[in-house]
């Protein structure tokens, strides 16, 4: 996953709301969102067996993004980052889980883990910390790094709150940031430009999944996933 905004305990009646895009190579095998045998809800990476955004009905959720720096884009012999999402979503104590993560063993990552009490973040460049109430953005840098697409998505969440269609519209925005506003992550300029859009389309690579998920204060939840093929076909799964 390469872009998300989370409304943490700031929408009346909604404990957390997540709007997120997963960017990936189109050839990487992926299963649509569904109910896992262990009770989790979300999509599955069929290559490594993990996930990128998983919700535990009656509990919390976990979500992960990679860090875009050349040293983290090389093949890694470490464990799959997607399993952090599985274990984090199943954790009953988010704080204890993030504090126990062996950060140096994984390629660059950011991980959000939420339980009934709080939202926590940990990552390669982020020591475990509790996330304050409010709307926070995360792409392929540290949480709340002022990337244009992250700030734009957060603005839509602040304006529209629990309005899935408005959030999906923002997640499918193909507009690229002007060069002066681009982050400097060490990748070539043309690639930086292409990745600056919320909805990425590059040869063989792009936004494959958009998700809007939420957990109400009373534990009720919803999960909507829209999948995009390289030919532009759209499929949707709704779970609740």
Low-confidence stretches: none
| Secondary structure: number of strands | 14
CATH evolutionary superfamily? Penicillin V Acylase, Chain A
| Separate helix tally | 5
CATH architectural label: 4-Layer Sandwich
The major sheet is characterized as: 7 strands, antiparallel
What is the helix fraction of residues, given as a range?
Answer: 10-25%
| Measured distance between first and last alpha carbons | 22 Å
CATH fold-level label: Penicillin V Acylase, Chain A
Elements, N to C (H/E): EEEEEEHHEEEEHHHEEEE
Radius of gyration: 16 Å
Class per helix and strand makeup: alpha+beta
Strand coverage percent:
35-45%
| Domains (count) | 1
Overall pLDDT score: 95
**Shape summary:** globular
Q: What is the CATH domain class? A: Alpha Beta
Summarize the structure.
With 240 residues, the protein is an alpha+beta fold. It is built from 5 helices and 14 strands. The protein has a single domain, classed as 4-Layer Sandwich (Penicillin V Acylase, Chain A).
What is the strand and helix layout of this fold?
Elements: E1 3-11, E2 14-25, E3 30-35, E4 41-45, E5 53-55, E6 61-66, H1 82-90, H2 94-100, E7 109-114, E8 119-123, E9 126-130, E10 134-138, H3 148-160, H4 164-171, H5 189-195, E11 201-202, E12 205-216, E13 221-228, E14 234-239
Antiparallel strand pairs: 1-2, 1-10, 2-12, 3-4, 4-5, 5-6, 6-7, 7-8, 8-9, 11-12, 12-13, 13-14
Helix pairs in contact: 3-4
